[in-house]
């Protein structure tokens, strides 16, 4: 337990080291999260587009239901 | 010979082929990057010994140096993709250049921020007009100019070409800018310490650094592929292969 | 060569007719210089120390104003289409346009800035070094400005964007140019820096017009 708090303390440089790593985490969260969000948005958009196209091709399916 | 290269390039660069290739490579890149980052950061933050000059504050190096390295690497990559896009009219190269720009800007901003945080315990102030920090700042402006130019133009093709020309001009200028900033800094040798002068890393400190650098590099290519895929999907929304792919299996990580 | 000269003469006449485009940057630069004592303090020692640097900054900013006028009317008058249809290479015609602008738009700026620096208290020996540095750097400065103007030509609100693209690329010119004056004032040799500025200008003259022409060609695609 003590070694953990020792490590977190970073020899008195905790504020510097951890704020640098926090910025890094922020940047990488943007990089990874943005990649996934953009991808999911695009896939949803395309799926919706495909549904609309399918509906146009066979309108009776829409009315039958 | 040249024509065979041309066909090869365009086949590899055709949207479905590129999409499939990225689909195969991305999981490997993503997981490898995660592994390298975990191992490298554990090595850097826990295993590496304390530095006798800088104490524990030197541990910022494990993100600062990879970020600084990537900021240059991504610009070079962006410019070479722009060149391929302009010379061989390869759309996928244009796409990759455009996708790379914000990622490179992020790495540059990260290098600046971590460098400034590292400077505080080392120099005693957040910001000094040190040669490296100054060149990095100018590099950030180059990235921002590129992104601004691309976003300001309406037509996609024109925007990609114009931004590409700017990236090429930038890449010719980067060594000159770097050299001039070094020279400028040598004119004003103040009482400041150079972070890296008279200071060398011990071997136990080096391997985690190389590992995190690899992690950054792999993550860049992962994000590049995934984001390029997204752009390609939206551009090719009406084509047959996208439809077939959407109704088939869904892309994974 | 003939095409270059004929085109150069024509461009000079056109630029001469648009006197305001030439005068505006000059006035702008004079204003910036006169703001220096107001922003800092009118102590002669301080002003003399920052004079050369301020003159450089004023020139870089003034040059940005010239940029917005460089290709302004060319859409409307059809010059853009003409240069690519003309039998002589477009790069030569672009170079002629740039040469004309250097002569009529940039030379006055370059000549004015040592004078302005002297008003701030720069010793005349340093002013000569400043003038030479500015002269050597001005072709590169003009070509970068032209590149910014050409890249942003199709954008309506381009005026704010072009300096954003160009100013970071001007860093080496600024560093060597302003450094020369400081070294010169300390009595150090500055020949190497003059050669460097000349080399940068040569590099820009050889590669720059190609990039500018490519950027102009883009505007015709759509």
User: Averaged pLDDT of chain C, please?
Assistant: 84
Number of domains of chain C: 1
Q: Report the portion of residues of chain B in β strands.
A: under 5%
Number of helices of chain B: 8
Low-pLDDT residue intervals, each spanning 5 or more residues of chain B: 190-195
Q: Estimate percent helicity of chain C.
A: over 70%
Helix-and-strand structural type of chain B = mainly alpha
Averaged pLDDT of chain B, please? 85
Number of helices of chain C: 10
Q: Note the main sheet of chain C.
A: none
Please tell me the total number of domains of chain B: 2
Please bin the fraction of helical residues of chain B.
over 70%
What Rg of chain C do the Cα atoms give? 18 Å
Strand content of chain C: under 5%
DSSP summary, beta strand count of chain B: 0
Derived structural class of chain C: mainly alpha
The helix-strand sequence of chain C is HHHHHHHHHH
Distance between the termini of chain B: 38 Å
Computed over alpha carbons, the radius of gyration of chain B is: 21 Å
Short description:
With 65 residues, chain A is an all-alpha fold. Chain A has helices spanning 2-9, 14-57, 59-64. Chain A has a domain at 25-65.
Description:
The complex is a heterotrimer of chains A (65), B (253) and C (222). By secondary structure, chain A is mainly alpha-helical. Chain A has a domain at 25-65. Chain A has helices at residues 2-9, 14-57, 59-64. Chain A is rod-shaped. Chain B has 253 residues and is mainly alpha-helical. Chain B has two domains: 22-49 and 202-253; 60-188. In chain B, helix 3 (61-88) runs antiparallel to helix 4 (91-123) and helix 3 (61-88) runs parallel beside helix 7. The model of chain B is unreliable at 190-195 (pLDDT under 50). With 222 residues, chain C is an all-alpha fold. Chain C has one domain. Helices cover 83% and strands 0% of the residues of chain C. Chain C has helices at residues 2-17, 19-39, 44-70, 74-77, 79-85, 90-119, 124-151, 161-166, 171-185, 191-221. In chain C, helix 7 packs parallel to helix 10 (191-221). The two termini of chain C are 31 Å apart. The mean pLDDT of chain C is 84. At the A-B interface, helix 2 of A face helix 3, helix 4, helix 7 and helix 8 of B.
């Amino acid at each position: 337990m003590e070694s953990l708090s020792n490590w977190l303390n970073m020899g008195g440089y905790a504020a510097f080291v951890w704020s640098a790593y926090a910025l890094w985490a922020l940047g990488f969260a943007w990089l990874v999260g943005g990649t996934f969000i953009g991808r999911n948005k695009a896939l949803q958009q395309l799926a919706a587009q495909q549904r609309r196209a399918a509906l146009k091709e066979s309108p009776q399916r829409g009315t039958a239901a | 010979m040249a024509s065979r290269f041309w066909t090869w390039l365009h086949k590899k660069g055709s949207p479905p082929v590129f999409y499939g290739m990225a689909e195969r490579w991305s999981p490997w890149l993503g997981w490898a990057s995660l592994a390298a980052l975990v191992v490298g950061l554990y090595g850097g933050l826990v295993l590496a010994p304390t530095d006798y000059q800088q104490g524990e504050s030197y541990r910022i190096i494990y993100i600062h140096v990879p970020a600084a390295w990537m900021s240059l690497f991504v610009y070079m990559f962006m410019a070479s993709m722009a060149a391929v896009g302009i010379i061989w009219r390869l759309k996928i190269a244009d796409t990759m250049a455009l996708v790379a720009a914000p990622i490179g800007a992020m790495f540059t901003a990260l290098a600046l921020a971590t460098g400034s945080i590292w400077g505080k315990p080392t120099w005693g102030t957040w910001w000094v007009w040190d040669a490296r920090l100054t060149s990095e700042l100018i590099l950030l402006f180059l990235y921002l100019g590129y992104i601004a130019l691309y976003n300001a133009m309406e037509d996609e093709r024109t925007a990609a070409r114009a931004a590409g020309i700017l990236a090429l001009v930038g890449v010719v200028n980067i060594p000159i800018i770097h050299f001039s900033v070094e020279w400028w800094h040598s004119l004003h040798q103040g009482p400041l310490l150079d972070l890296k002068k008279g200071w060398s890393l011990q071997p136990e400190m080096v391997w985690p650094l190389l590992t995190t650098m690899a992690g950054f590099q792999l993550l860049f290519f992962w994000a590049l592929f995934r984001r390029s895929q997204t752009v390609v999907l939206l551009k090719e929304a009406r084509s047959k292969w996208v439809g077939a792919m959407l109704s088939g299996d869904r892309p994974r990580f | 060569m003939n095409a270059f000269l004929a085109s150069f003469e024509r461009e000079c006449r056109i630029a001469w007719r648009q006197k305001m485009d030439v005068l505006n940057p000059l006035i702008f630069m004079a204003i910036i210089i006169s703001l220096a004592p107001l922003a800092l303090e009118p102590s002669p020692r301080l002003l003399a120390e920052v004079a050369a640097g301020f003159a450089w900054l004023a020139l870089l900013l003034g040059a940005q104003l010239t940029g917005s006028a460089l290709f302004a009317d060319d859409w409307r008058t059809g010059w853009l289409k003409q240069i690519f249809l003309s039998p002589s290479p477009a790069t030569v015609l672009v170079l002629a346009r740039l040469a004309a602008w250097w002569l009529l738009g940039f030379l006055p700026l370059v000549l004015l800035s040592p004078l302005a620096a002297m008003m701030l208290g720069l010793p005349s020996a340093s002013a000569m070094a400043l003038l030479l540095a500015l002269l050597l750097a001005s072709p590169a400065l003009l070509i970068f400005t032209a590149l910014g103007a050409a890249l942003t030509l199709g954008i309506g609100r381009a005026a704010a964007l072009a300096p954003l693209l160009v100013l970071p690329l001007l860093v080496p010119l600024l560093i060597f140019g302003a450094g020369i004056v400081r070294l010169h004032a300390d009595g150090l040799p500055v020949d190497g820096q003059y050669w460097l500025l000349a080399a940068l200008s040569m590099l820009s003259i050889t590669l720059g017009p190609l990039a500018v022409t490519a950027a102009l060609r883009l505007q015709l695609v759509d």
